[in-house]
Write a structure and sequence with these properties.
mainly alpha; five-stranded parallel sheet; 43 helices; 61% helix; 6% strand
Length: 951
């Protein structure tokens, strides 16, 4: 069994020439850190420094141990182990099977060889071990420094090989590579000398002398020094045509034809890259590009401008693939050629291509002789446009940084079409040149699955449906992420898809698992390129948005997060939107792609210590204070146990809401963010905001029947209150948990919580707390079927409320006592209590407060044979419930109306209202109520029935 380790390129291991799956790049970097010091102990601290540098995860040792464990499993087919040693870990293997150590060994042998032929062969063998930059795209200070060192060693070995080859007369074979290297390292004098000698020996002494002249000028201009003595001497010997410079084995000069060559033909450029092999979806976008091209082509005779389509979107969404696919499918539209340039506007490994370089490349492709190309950019652009005039040419400008990079490359001929791809929105190009913006979104589930099937085959995808669903969820429709996962699975057919899904499961390491080692296919590097293009304030806001809880954020919340005013925040969000790092999907709400958000969170965590925590506290205070104001508008001052809030953090400006309708709209829009803010506060151990946020949601949750959410927020509230040692908050949490549990059919749990709440209130002598708890106990016992116990607790609550001087609370409990009497068939007592309740509500709280009492009076009238009167009460109650957005009680009242209509023989109206009630019950997941209505609908029963609740 032959084992090989590769570090001089991507990090790889081969067993009998078959690659092993080593997991994601961070895991591979642990292996590389051990292989560099093979057979020597590397401490845990050294490993952490090598792998993470100054950005280690919070639980660095846990992560490291996990990677080492996975590597042991991955390396088991190679028979190589990772063992513990004093203070660290050691990987035991022969140094010769690791390309880095083998490279150094071969170079050392070559430099000690007496035979030039053997030296050259050894150096060729050493250089042949390189597959790319050492360690691939790993980016930590230790690996970067070692990569630079190894790069210098590689270059020195190349120069040694060149000298050996030149001594053997192989100048012709070296020439092309020497030109390339000299362009990369124009100040290296040894390399310049090798190129000059090769040129001279190839019969090109004038070029050799010109290269010396350019090198000398650069040395003087950039370093302030002249050429070294050896280079000066070589220059002089070339001038003198020194016979000693001739090759040891001169070759015969090439034969040349005596016939004159034909004049050059203007070429038709065909510069498109190969079409993407795994292209799926995008039918709508392909059709849109064709439609625009068709429409504007019809207007060409009228002097219309060139057709420009700007394909925009987040990095990795497939802009280039779409452009190239359309270009290949529509080559027949452009018989005069297709020009293509990668402008590298957001390339993680290269600087953006300057417009002069791109224009010069197009002029070369169009057959312009170098000696007639103007020096000035404007003149070059004018020549380029002149050559395209009257021709039908497609120009693809890929990965543009901004509109300024694009404008010099736009043709002037209406027969031409331009496709631009960019992560920027290129708004000015749309404004000034009429470009069609074509935003590209992530794949939907069907397209994403289709891409996996293309790579892996339907059989493999169908064999692991759960794993495939997890992969699709974790990649969140981003084509680059899907391609990375599919490529790993395709190159390792023995690897279960479930193993890949497990690697992607943890959000903290998901970007590591999507790291291929190739910067162009590395999600973190792709996002980093967009991040580097941002202004400093926008980059800071980007990091803070990654830390923010919740699925999205509105402008006011983002302003609080940033500690800035709304106008300035809007500008920064606009910059992020233009870079496709956030998406504004409603006029004032923004969201991020899941994978972009993970990268944003990394940026936020790497920021100045404390900045993120301060920002998050401002955001939690924003949600708390705005929700508090919203609840006050919806429920007035009568929500029990109204907390006293601390002032909001500096820089936090809560939203001013105008009326109850605006408050309910805000609570609905921000509900998911409020729940997330509470979870964040609990994690940060900001105890008071946890249970205070739960309090702000009481009315909203009750009106919308969000009882499961209510249960969750008060469980969190109870946890915070217990950690805080705050008995009133703990009792409040038990009380609300009792209410929610009862609504969810958990009677025993409800009574337990309410008993705990009552005990705290009785011990503290808290009369309002006792009254509220007895009121709820009455409602719970009624739900349990014990109507006498319900009346007993309701009566105790009423007596306590009468001594508190709050007429609204008293009115509510009069209704509750009246309802209990009605359930026991005592309709006179019931009507008396409910009418007193309604009068008190209308006197003290206005028309809208008595909706539940009207429902109770309707129930009493219905059960005493006064069905028309019942419908009057029910109709008024229904109107008030709808005005208040109280869908929970609306459902009950619709069912009651149907019962009264059935009793009056109005069966069709009853059926319609039962169907409305059924929809609401199902939406609220009130299964027993829904089944009861469904049974009535199925049986078309005429028996009136119904229940109501006032707890």
């Amino acid at each position: 069994m032959a084992v090989r380790f590769g570090l001089l390129g991507g990090i790889e291991v081969w067993v009998d020439d078959r690659p092993l799956d080593l997991g994601h790049v961070r895991q591979r970097s642990v292996l590389a850190a051990l292989l560099v010091d093979v057979n020597r102990s590397v401490s845990v601290d050294q490993l952490a420094d090598r792998v993470w540098g100054d950005r280690p995860p919070q639980r660095v040792r846990t992560a490291l141990y996990s990677y080492l464990s996975r590597l042991r499993i991955a390396l088991s087919p190679a028979g190589v182990g990772i063992g513990k040693a004093a203070g660290g870990y050691v990987l035991a293997a022969e140094a010769a099977v690791i390309d880095l150590h083998r490279f150094r060994e071969l170079v050392g042998e070559a430099r000690g060889a007496a035979d030039g032929v053997r030296a050259e062969a050894l150096l060729e063998q050493a250089l042949g071990l390189w597959r790319g930059d050492a360690f691939g795209a790993i980016d930590t200070p230790w690996f970067n420094a070692l990569r630079d060192t190894l790069g210098q060693e590689r270059f020195a070995a190349e120069l040694d090989r060149n000298d050996a080859a030149l001594r053997r007369g192989r100048h012709g074979e070296l020439l092309a590579g020497l030109f390339t290297r000299a362009g990369e390292r124009p100040l290296d004098e040894r390399l310049a000398g090798q190129l000059m000698l090769a040129l001279y020996r190839c019969g090109r002494p004038a070029e050799a002398l010109e290269h010396f002249r350019r090198t000398r000028h650069r040395l003087v201009d950039e370093l302030g020094i002249g050429p070294s003595q050896p280079l000066e001497l070589l220059h002089q010997r070339i001038l003198e045509a020194d016979p000693a410079l001739e090759p040891p084995l001169p070759s015969a000069p090439p034969e040349h034809s005596a016939l004159p060559s034909a004049p050059p033909r203007i070429p038709v450029p065909r510069q498109l890259p190969a079409p993407p092999p795994a292209f799926t979806g995008r039918a709508r976008e392909l059709l849109r590009l064709s439609e625009v091209c068709d429409v504007r082509a019809e207007a060409e005779a009228g002097g219309e401008t060139v057709v420009i389509s700007a394909i925009g979107g987040i990095g990795g969404v497939g802009k280039t693939w779409l452009a190239v696919r359309w270009a290949h499918e529509n080559m027949a539209r452009f018989p005069d050629g297709q020009l293509y340039v990668n402008l590298r506007g957001f390339d993680p490994a290269a600087e953006p291509v300057p417009p002069p370089v791109a224009v010069r490349g197009f002029l070369d492709a169009l057959g312009v002789a170098p000696d007639i190309i103007p020096v000035d950019l404007d003149a070059q652009t004018a020549l380029y446009r002149s050559l395209l005039a009257g021709r039908r040419v497609l120009v693809v400008l890929d990965d543009a940084r901004d509109a300024g990079q694009v404008r010099p490359l736009l043709p002037g001929s209406p027969g031409c079409t331009v496709l631009v791809t960019s992560r920027s929105r290129l708004t000015s190009l749309v404004t000034t040149h009429g470009a069609l913006p074509l935003p590209l979104d992530v794949f939907g589930p069907a397209e994403a699955r289709e891409l996996l099937v293309w790579h892996l085959g339907a059989g493999r995808v169908e064999a692991e449906p759960d794993a495939v669903e997890a992969l699709l969820e974790h990649c969140a429709g981003l084509p680059l992420a899907l391609g990375i996962v599919a490529a790993r699975a395709a190159t390792h057919p023995e690897l279960p898809l479930a193993a890949l899904a497990e690697e992607l499961r943890e959000t903290a390491t998901r970007l590591d698992a999507l790291d291929t080692g190739d910067l162009t296919a590395n999600l973190r590097a792709v996002f980093a390129a967009s991040h580097r293009a941002l202004s400093a304030p926008a980059a800071e806001l980007f990091g803070l948005l990654g830390l923010a809880p919740g699925p999205d954020i509105d402008l006011s919340a983002a302003a609080a997060l940033a500690g800035l005013g709304a106008p300035r925040t809007r500008v920064l969000l606009g910059e992020l939107e233009a870079a496709h790092l956030v998406q504004r999907y409603t006029p004032a709400r923004y969201r991020m792609h899941d994978l972009v958000r993970l990268y944003a969170a990394e940026c936020g965590q790497a920021a100045e210590p404390g900045r993120g925590t301060e920002a998050l506290r401002r955001l939690v205070d924003f949600y708390l204070h705005t929700a508090f104001a919203a609840n006050s508008l919806v429920d007035g001052p009568n929500t029990p146990f109204r907390p006293e809030l601390d002032p909001p953090a500096p820089g936090c400006v809560p939203v001013r809401l105008e009326d109850p309708g605006a408050a309910l709209d805000w609570l609905g829009a921000e509900h998911a963010c409020l729940l997330a803010a509470q979870r964040l506060a609990l994690k940060q151990e900001w105890h008071s905001p946890v249970w205070q946020l739960a309090w702000t949601l009481i009315s909203y949750h009750w009106r919308g029947a969000h009882f499961r959410d209510h249960l969750r927020v008060w469980r969190a509230g109870l946890t915070a209150a217990e950690r805080q040692g705050h008995p009133p908050a703990r009792a409040l949490a038990h009380w609300r948990l009792g209410q929610a549990a009862s609504h969810l059919g958990r009677g025993a749990e409800a009574l337990d919580h309410l008993g705990r709440a009552l005990a705290v209130y009785e011990e503290a002598g808290d009369v309002p707390g006792q009254a509220h708890t007895h009121r709820t106990l009455g409602w719970v016992w009624e739900q349990q079927g014990d109507k006498e116990a319900a009346l007993s607790h309701a009566g105790q609550a009423l007596r306590l409320y009468e001594g508190l001087g709050n007429p609204v609370w008293q009115a509510g409990q009069l209704n509750a006592v009246g309802w209990c009497h009605a359930q026991l068939g005592r309709f006179e007592e019931a009507r008396d209590h409910c009418e007193r309740a309604l009068a008190l509500f209308r006197a003290e709280a206005g028309r809208g407060a008595g909706a539940s009492t009207l429902d109770s009076l309707g129930y009493i009238a219905h059960h005493t044979g006064r069905h028309d009167r019942a419908l009057d009460h029910y109709g008024e109650a229904l109107e008030l419930f709808r005005e208040a957005g109280n869908a929970y009680d609306e459902a009950d009242t619709l069912a009651h109306i149907a019962d009264a209509q059935q009793a009056l023989g109005r069966a069709e109206e009853a059926r319609e209202n039962r169907l409305l009630a059924l929809d609401l019950y199902r939406a609220q997941r009130r299964d027993a109520k829904a089944q009861h209505i469904q049974d009535r609908l199925d049986a078309r029963s005429t028996e009136p029935d119904g229940t109501s609740g006032t707890g």
